[in-house]
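Troubleshooting log. The previous structure file for this entry was overwritten by mistake, so regenerating from the original sequence record. Sequence copied from the archived sheet and checked twice against the printout by T.R.
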Amino acid sequence: MITEAQVRKVLEEQLEGSPFFLVDVAVKPGDKIDIEVDKPEGITIGECREISKKVEAVFDREQEDFELTVSSPGLEKPFRVPQQYWKNVGRSVTVELLDGKKIEGKLTLAQGDNIEVESRSREKVEGKKSKQEVIRLHQLNIKDIKQTKVLISFK
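Regenerated output below.
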């Protein structure tokens, strides 16, 4: 049986020096291998196909019968690697922290394991009669985040 560690090792070798980054690998019962790969400007179907061919060339189908799927992570899934934060700077996100707090706003910065999210809300401000727009910058470390997702808007 092919293991996740074997697939990860092959992918790391195949993707080294390229703009692509590995998001996730899952090996499911029945030797079903699911790979999620991306790159800063987004990945095409053709690029997924090329990566699939490279992985298939390493594993012998005569010895192991497996099903292989290579795809992009998709907008609806939470971020799993720091590169996804870097790729999505400038987009609206929802961040759920480990303490249960949720922050919704624009991802304005991603450096290393630190991110910055700019949130906007209308709040009562002392000395003002009506609610005012308040902008807050939230400095966060990825290790304090339970999950982050891109906010999909149809405005």
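The chain has two domains: 4-71, 82-150. Archived copy saved in two places this time.
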